[in-house]
Amino acid sequence: MGNPRFRVRVSYPGTVGPRTAVATMISSVFQAPVVGGAVDVFYDPDDDESVIVRARPDQPARFPF
């Protein structure tokens, strides 16, 4: 199955207020992101373009069916 790529939009509290970023996330099928789900966001407060989004290992995938 491989590891699919997902385009995700995340909102997170930045050092100067709320932030939103759009990023590509590679994850296993079993940790696929879902709307309203939790992911880890790593960012550089001095660089708006430096954002890493990763699946949280404690959040299993939820399927809509």
Written account of the structure:
This protein has strands at 5-14, 17-26, 39-44, 47-55. Helix content is 0%, strand content 54%. It is mainly beta. The chain has one domain. It has a two-stranded antiparallel ribbon with strand order 1-2. A two-stranded antiparallel sheet has the order 3-4.
Main sheet characteristics: 2 strands, antiparallel
> Number of helix segments?
0
β-strand number: 4
Order of helices and strands: EEEE
Rounded to an integer in angstroms, the radius of gyration calculated over CA atoms is: 13 Å
Mean pLDDT: 77
The 3D shape can be described as elongated
Instruction: Tell me the β content.
Output: over 45%
- Termini Cα gap: 19 Å
Total domain modules: 1
Give the helix proportion (percent range): under 10%
Strand order of the largest sheet: 1-2
Q: Spans of 5+ residues with little confidence (pLDDT < 50)?
A: none
Structural class call reads mainly beta
Summary tags:
elongated, 65 residues, mainly beta, two-stranded antiparallel sheet
Describe the structure concisely.
This protein is 0% helix and 54% strand. The protein has 65 residues and is mostly beta strands.
SSE arrangement:
Layout lengths: L4 E10 L2 E10 L12 E6 L2 E9 L10
Antiparallel strand pairs: 1-2, 3-4
